[in-house]
């Protein structure tokens, strides 16, 4: 298997394959059933509005002249209520308010959504309720109100503590404001504040990145998320790079940045538990762990994604769901139909196992045999992957481990995950369809 392995550090999300609006698609259709989903799920709430668009961002966000907070709140409550009723889940394990810039929402909106959750499902005791915070003055001054509304964890999007980097990124805060926001968040939620920082920014060197990370560690709490800046088509930064106004660091430089960051964080007492996430004092993000462990979750708000079984519709399989993107259309559909689900894609066993692999291998612990068996009781990891010459080569190179504990990447392999995954997914697909062919032959020749 002679192939170049490339590094992976950026954000990861599961995207739905394209279908027409309202269409229910069947992906990797088979007769085998998905494992029953838990009566417990997590909830993601998307607030799509921002004051300005950062130069690198291609997320689903909007810069409106004004926001009708009352209508937006009512629609978030209505869609939450409808999707909880569709799922028939009995309890919510965590809630995450993301965006966009959810710290621009009113605290009363957050409180109203949480009240709706509690009215239709039990919000677990000590459930993690996270709010993404933009470290501009408006976000900082609202933190006490969000705490009173029910938020108990803040994720602060510092991104950089360097003036030049913040200008390149198009951020609307300065280093001092970021430090003040972190201090306020730590005072309100000690031990439950995460900080997002980026590397691979134009003009950034390995030495300047290490210095900046050291400064972050002097002021941060117990959770750090590292993200490599990625160049996305259609963004202002993409145009700047195309026109030669700025240049991105090379792959070798960003790989060195990631390696040094992992070592610096380890020396500071942080344990890496996922490709981009580090925690000490066991301050891991339980909400994001649910994604990486392929647990069900409900997505509410414009453009939100979800993975759950809509039991109220008589459906037995997990669906991948996407809500209408544009806020005005989303609100109109919610007012008319109770929700604005634009796409529903029924996941078969193979589709679900692909997600288990893609998300689970982001974790340093990887995928245990017990976890895999919950989704694939008929074929274990050794049966699916153990006989592959390509997988054996990855093991011999020391970047992939398949043993009695399960499947995981080595320290070196975790940085190469985006090149390892296609090999694993091909083997999974080959095994699955070979197994299906054998089942057909047995049924035709009893």
TrEMBL record:
GO molecular function per UniProt: 4 iron, 4 sulfur cluster binding; coproporphyrinogen oxidase activity; metal ion binding
InterPro entries registered for this protein in UniProt: Aldolase_TIM (IPR013785), Coproporphyrinogen-III_oxidase (IPR034505), Elp3/MiaA/NifB-like_rSAM (IPR006638), HemN_C (IPR010723), HemW-like (IPR004559), rSAM (IPR007197), rSAM_sf (IPR058240)
Domain (Radical SAM core) ranges: 35-271
Localization (cell): Mitochondrion
Ranges that cross the membrane: none
Record's keyword terms, sorted: 4Fe-4S, Chaperone, Heme, Iron, Iron-sulfur, Metal-binding, Mitochondrion, S-adenosyl-L-methionine, Transit peptide
Highest taxon, organism lineage: Eukaryota
GO cellular component assignments: mitochondrion
SMART domains: Elp3 (SM00729)
GO BP, one annotated term: porphyrin-containing compound biosynthetic process
Pfam families referenced in this protein's UniProt entry, alphabetically: HemN_C, Radical_SAM
Role: May be a heme chaperone, appears to bind heme. Homologous bacterial proteins do not have oxygen-independent coproporphyrinogen-III oxidase activity. Binds 1 [4Fe-4S] cluster. The cluster is coordinated with 3 cysteines and an exchangeable S-adenosyl-L-methionine.
Family: Belongs to the anaerobic coproporphyrinogen-III oxidase family. HemW subfamily.
Name of this chain's protein: Radical S-adenosyl methionine domain-containing protein
